Amino acid sequence: MHAFVLSILSSIIAALILVIFSSLFSRNARGLLFAIIAKLLKMDLEAVFATKKDAEQDIEKNLRRAKYIYMLTGRGNELQRGFFSDYLSDKNAKRKKRIRIILPDIEVKNGETDWIGEREKELSQFDSLYGNDILKKQISTTYMYLQTSVSESRVELKCSNLPLVHRILLTDTVLYLTPYSTHCHARDSEVIKFRRGGPLYAHYERFFELIWSKSEEVSWDLNKFDKLPRYILK
To answer: The domain spanning residue 49 has which CATH number?
Structure first.
């Protein structure tokens, strides 16, 4: 218990230091500063990447080494490029890795909050392309893209109606957390890397497993997806 309290206090101290100095450094410098502080305070944070593009090489390296990969995401456009594109198109990839993906449910039950719609409202504030169910159509495209991979057991897929506030990408060794901002796309948001063995990695691993256990299997009702025109994700 004492060690756990110290780890939480260390996280709070690091956060305060980051806030104090954040106005003095660029985004890349802040990420480096935070990583150094985390090392000194023995936190499980390894790096802060300024954008998704900055993190891509590190993510690719760890995905190819991973024994299993868990992802909770929004649009899921990263599934159509890089490691995921290679792996999901490889006919010999069956059962080599356990890949579990949770996507937003495009069919919201009566009385439930439409979290895809809420996220689209945020996107429309800074991107004029959004505001007419574009996000839901993009997510529909991802479902259709994954259909063959699911049927051939290369990936496990579930859906859940959750607030779209972050992307979780977790392997047996690392966690990449992308908090979604209200003023930019996820691709322009910071990516925070945590190593296995610390409290935050353990927290998000538990979070994913709980959501997975309560999420629904995907019903491949083609009419459900076809009624939403599919868009090529960029």
So the answer is: 3.30.870.10
Whole-structure pTM value: 0.79
Which residue range(s) make up the domain with 65? 44-226
- Nearest partner of 47 among 71, 55, 105, 57, judged by Cα: 55
- Residues in CB range of 10: below 8 A, 6 or more apart: 41, 42, 43
CB 54 within 8 A of CB 191: yes
Summarize pLDDT for 68-103 with one digit per residue, the tens: 999 999 999 889 888 888 888 776 555 578 999 999
Total number of domains constituting the chain: 2
* Contacting residues for 136 by C-beta, under 8 A, at least 6 apart: 106, 116, 117, 120, 228
pLDDT one-digit tens code per residue, 43-69 = 678 888 999 999 999 999 999 999 999
Distances (CA, A) of 116 to 27, 36, 113: 28, 36, 9
Sign of CA dihedral 40, 44, 49, 53: positive
Answer yes or no: do 22 and 82 share one domain: no
pLDDT in tens, 143-192: 999 998 898 888 999 999 999 999 999 999 999 999 999 888 888 899 99
- What string of DSSP letters covers 74-142? SS-GGGGSHHHHHHHT-TT-TTTSEEEEEEE-SSPPTTS--HHHHHHHHHHTT-TT-SSSHHHHHHHHH
Is the domain of 133 the same as that of 99?
A: yes
